[in-house]
Amino acid sequence: MGAGLAAGLLLGLVAAATHAPVLLWLAAAVRPVGAIFLNLLSMVVIPLVATALFAGVAGLGDLRQVGRLGVRTLAFYWGTTLVAIALGFLVGALLVPRGALSPDQQAALRDLTAGDQGALRQAAEQIPGGARFLVELIPANPVRAAVDGALLPLVVFVTIFAAAAAALPVEKRAALTDLADVATQALIKVVHWVLWLAPLGIFALVLPTVAQFGWSLVKAMLWFILAVVLGCGVFIAVVYLPAVALLARVRPGRFLRAGLPSMLMGFSTTSSLATLPMMLDAARRDLHISPAVAGFALPLGASANRGGSALFQAVAVLFIAQLYGAPLGSGAMFQAGAAVFLASLTVAAVPAGSVVSLFPAFTATGLPLSGLTILISLDRIPDMFRTMTNVTGHLAGATVIAAVEGERVG
Predict the structure, then answer these.
(1) What is the rounded distance in angstroms from the CA atom of residue 37 to the CA atom of residue 17?
(2) Domain membership flag for residue 397
(3) Residue 44 has pLDDT above 90, yes or no
(4) Angle at which helices 307-323 and 380-404 pack, to 10 degrees?
(5) Which of 273, 40, 65, 50 has the alpha carbon at shortest distance from 155?
(6) CATH code (residue 390)
(7) What pTM does this model have?
(8) How far apart are CA 395 and CA 258, in angstroms?
(9) For the chain, what is the mean pLDDT?
(10) How many domains are there within the chain?
(11) Separation of alpha carbons 11 and 25, rounded Å
């Protein structure tokens, strides 16, 4: 996978720099291969979430243990998300001002992007907020939620169903848990087959994107991208790895070796959901996390834990404020932080969802919605790093929670 990623980056950069017809043709030709690979991974996500989560929760037995596991898992995810937001504001405040535009350039930028606000507002309306978000957590039709790919409502339904099964006598719930466990193992076997195509699939995903944007995009928004990349690296180094080392007693090197394939997959596909099957396999096989904890913590993390996305959004708020010459005071920063935290729980399943879900933060701080257009245009590179960070957080959370529950992990 690392070789496929490196080859895609190298050939993509050469294609962007030289515009060689052969390389541009190759970039276009391999795009369907990347889509097929991503579809093969995605097709097992919903059934794997349902079976792994059910087996994990129902296998716990005691409903008090189910509740305790849920509280601990969410406390880790949400606590680290708050740290990510604070770190994003810090890194953004240090680096983003270095790329400030002149007042004339700021005015020209406002004029250039003013016409895009209507489409962005319409896209943002897809994001549930407030009371609507709470209502939609309970799916009226769980099958419809699965069909629509609404993972968080599906997680809620499966958790409730599995908790009810856990309350049954052991001999009655055994039939359900055994079936769910066998189905989970069969789906993971499918993932192993798909991963034989991983080097080619990752190459086919990365090459067209890099060939399209090249270094010009990186140069144009260098400080913003650098802030996101540096922030994600610092976040992993000072939050996730110490948590794994201190709370789970797992050496950081051991954890990174176990999580590296999942991190590379998240980096390449920019999808935590597509990486979920590989995370489940790594948690069980390499980190020795029980199916009960892995099957609960990882699907929940994929739907409700986005520390990397929250960090990106905090940097993005400062970046657009700087770009348009709209400095934020302490009150506006607090409002933006609160909006980013809530948005990290409701990132929509739409293209550039982490960008579109910044709508509430922009509204709260008075930033121009046209700034979202700029973020969308350069989103691919930050998306790779924030998704890799999210995946690292999912695995770190599962490792820490397993250790807190008394398991020997690592």
Answers:
(1) 27
(2) yes
(3) no
(4) 140
(5) 50
(6) 1.10.3860.10
(7) 0.68
(8) 9
(9) 78
(10) 1
(11) 12
